[in-house]
Amino acid sequence: MLTLLLIIGAIFIGIPLIKLVFKLILGVLGITIGLVSLPLLIVGGLIILPIVIIFGILTQLLPILIVGGLIYMGYRYMTNREYY
């Protein structure tokens, strides 16, 4: 009977301890992965993000640039036929 109680007690104590150890291992892995990926996030924020923002602005301005360029070419063509 005492052996059965000891086994049950060990199970009730052991399972939460195993869960705690796994949580600690996963926590350490999470911190390690976070520290490893931090430089990548900094590089992405400082280098890639401005490029994306600049190209986003340029794509918004692209129709205006095309229409403006066509108007300018038409103006140059109308005012100076020898230009072409």
TrEMBL record:
Superkingdom of source: Bacteria
TM region positions: 6-26, 33-55, 61-78
Keywords: Membrane, Transmembrane, Transmembrane helix
Name this protein carries in UniProt: Uncharacterized protein
Organism (species): Anaerococcus lactolyticus ATCC 51172
Organism lineage: Bacteria, Bacillati, Bacillota, Tissierellia, Tissierellales
